[in-house]
Amino acid sequence: MRHIVAVQAGVTADEYDREPTAAELDAIEREMSVVLAEVDLLDVYISTLDRTPTELDSRRIRRARRRVLAARRALLNQSDGTSLSGGAA
Length: 89
Fold this sequence. Notes:
Layout: H1 22-47, H2 55-78
Helix pairs in contact: 1-2
């Protein structure tokens, strides 16, 4: 049996084995409100997967979408002009 190993050291670089930097942790903390709002929206979508959405479900979806948009807007307003991923073009 032949073992497949990395021929170059760059393939198995240690860069990915490190802990997040303070700047990365700060960025995660800044974006946490958006992440939590998107998780709530996903929960609403998951709750309606196995049935036809009712009017109440439709309201919950709209409300969750508005929370995501509000969180993204708040993050964009406090950021220094850097682009955010996951948004519309």
